[in-house]
Amino acid sequence: MCSSVLFFACNTPVTKKVLIIGRGKISAQENNITMTGESGYTEETVEVKGDKPVSWNVTTPTGKTTVNIPDEAGIYILNLKTDTIVGSQQNLGQDLGGRTITQEELKVKIDSLVKLTTGANVNAGAHNYFILPNQLAKVSSNMEAKIFGPFTKIPGSLEADKNGKAPEIFKFYTNAEMRDLIARLKKNTL
Questions:
Q1: Which of 79, 108, 111, 117 lies 20 to 30 Å from 2, alpha-carbon distance?
Q2: What pLDDT is attached to residue 183?
Q3: 131-149 burial, b for 16+ CB within 10 Å, e for fewer?
Q4: Which among 85, 47, 43 has a CA at the least distance from the CA of 69?
């Protein structure tokens, strides 16, 4: 479930995109974001025009809050779920090249994922993210970056960006979803 909403004057360019991740139904009317319902998974992309900071009044079943979107252009995630969202940039073309991963490499990957679920060693410079409920995080300055939220798989094939290069890709999970992935990976260790 994805749609876009535009804010502000029609002749002002879109400078920010906010992927709102929540549950139930999300609606965006001017600077008011409302999430109703407490089950299921939903995403809503909101495009923001202009180079000024914006404040949103956010209402969810758990209460009201104000979310401040800075003046910096880029793509953001607003987590309205009750679980933390974690994720990182995915580097295409740097996979394992069809070879088998060693036990040591698997253990390092598991350790890295465990640290991600606790927020250890997380920072935007490393392109990994730990987004608490009701928090906003800037993911990329690249407005063409592709973001795949929780419960969404990265497609098997992706188109190159407008310059013919591999797209900038980010994958996010709920903390619960990541813990399930870690448990499955641990079953493959000796």
A1: 117
A2: 93
A3: beebebbbbbeeeebbbbb
A4: 47
For the entire predicted model, the pTM comes to 0.86
